[in-house]
Amino acid sequence: METPGSQSSLHRANLERVVRAVRLAGSLTQAEIARSTGLSAATVSNIVRELQESGTVSVTPTSSGGRRARAVSLSGDAGIVIGVDFGHTHLRVAVGNLAHQILAEESEPIDVDASAAQGLDRAESLVKRLVAATGVPASKTVGVGLGVPGPIDVATGVLGSTSILPGWAGTNPREDLGQRLGVPVYVDNDANLGALGEMVWGAGRGVKDLAYIKVASGVGAGLVINGQIYRGPGGTAGEIGHITLDESGPVCRCGNRGCLETFTAGRYVLPLLEASHGPDLTVERMVRLAREGDPGCRRVVGDVGRHIGSGVASLCNLLNPSRVVLGGDLAEAGDLVLDPIRESVARYAIPSAARQLTLAGGALGSRAEVLGALALVLSEMGDTSVLDGIVPSRVPAFT
Questions:
Q1: Phi, psi (5° rounding) for residue 324?
Q2: Burial 253-267, CB ≥16 within 10 A → b, else e
Q3: How far apart are CA 365 and CA 20, in angstroms?
Q4: Is-contact 191 152, C-beta < 8 A?
Q5: CB count, 10 Å around CB of 319?
Q6: 3-state secondary structure 268-301
Q7: What is the pLDDT of residues 11-56, one digit of tens each?
Q8: HSE of 72 in the Cβ direction (CA atoms, 13 Å)?
Q9: pLDDT in tens, 254-263
Q10: Is residue 201 within 8 Å of 376, Cβ to Cβ?
Q11: Residue 377 burial (C-beta neighbours within 10 Å; 0-12, 13-18, 19+)
Q12: What are phi and psi of 85, to 5 degrees?
């Protein structure tokens, strides 16, 4: 038994600090590990050597600042993590390892509004198929990250609002999927996972304070404060889509009038173009037509950008993020939507907050949420299982 404060417990704590730093970043040089952990270069060198000898990490030559360096990452065969992302019209699953490498990924259409049971049936089947395709034993699975397009009670895992996902209200997808697969499941809403994905792999890398805005069938924001997702005590932080822009405006699905969502989400703005473009227009096609010069689509995209900018200005005034990343299909419009957002931010945000803000389109596109689900597992899984040999005694139900 290790005694608190003993050399052995201090050594174990230092091992966990190094493993955590590498696990969260994917790959770090030894100098970067020293800076992020506060450990001396000599201590880091000794720990990395020990971890390499045990097969926990791999070390490869690299360069940093023009000098030779050694990149440290967790061993590719140390374990796998699984990401599951439910959108309103799609299911996407990805399998990755602890070195942040994607081993398999697939998406298929789905009507997520139908029922939780049907959606989780599809997810279970796709997870089993992709894990089998990787050739990695299912017993190597560390955990599953699960994203759903609705508010989650982070303490219980229960899905809330009946107006957003009526077929899922009151269900516990974390518990259900965990029972099906026999591994830990971590759940969050899609906007928070989009923020995690962009922060680890995309347009938010290296940024500790950012907001990820996702505009799809609804509008949500994932908020990162000092490098951590901020969920609020009830898990509903970031519902930017329900900021009131016009108290006499259209009735929102939440029951209020004039929410930001009623001026920006696809279900509200696409009918504006129905007379000229037909009833089957999608946000993706509207964006493509706007880029090709269609005047009606360009006008709607620009108006949506200005309304989003009002919400972003409120975020700037309240939280002062250093970066806002726009995700979802709308981000593909590029400056056609980003420039109107910038105009509204310049008009409505406190000048000092607006000057510090960088606005960018998402770098991961439709993959942001499923990669964020992988990042969620990597951030929550802990380091004990890595140091002790990934869950050697647990055999998941889907082997």
A1: -120, 130
A2: bbeeebbbbbbbbbe
A3: 27
A4: no
A5: 16
A6: HHHHHHHHHHCCCCCHHHHHHHHHCCCHHHHHHH
A7: 888 888 888 888 888 888 988 899 989 999 999 999 999 988 888 8
A8: 27
A9: 899 999 999 9
A10: no
A11: buried
A12: -120, 120
Q: What gap in Å lies between CA 47 and CA 57, rounded to an integer?
A: 10
More confident residue, 6 or 190: 190
Residue with tokens 């990787």: 134
Strand partners, 77: none
DSSP codes, 79-138: -EEEEEEE-SSEEEEEEEETTS-EEEEEEEE--TTS-HHHHHHHHHHHHHHHHHHHT--G
d(CA 291, CA 298): 8
Helix (H) or strand (E) holding 198: helix 190-201
Q: Which two tokens stand for residue 236?
A: 């509903």
Using CA atoms, how far residue 315 sits from 119, 135, 149, 345, in Å, is 33, 45, 21, 10
Integer distance in angstroms from the first to the last C-alpha of the chain?
Answer: 34
CA atoms within 13 A on the CB side of 125: 9
Q: In the numeric block, which tokens belong to residue 144?
A: 């599953």
Could you report the per-residue pLDDT of 228-243, keeping only the tens digit for each? 899 888 778 899 999 9
Structural tokens at position 74: 């967790």
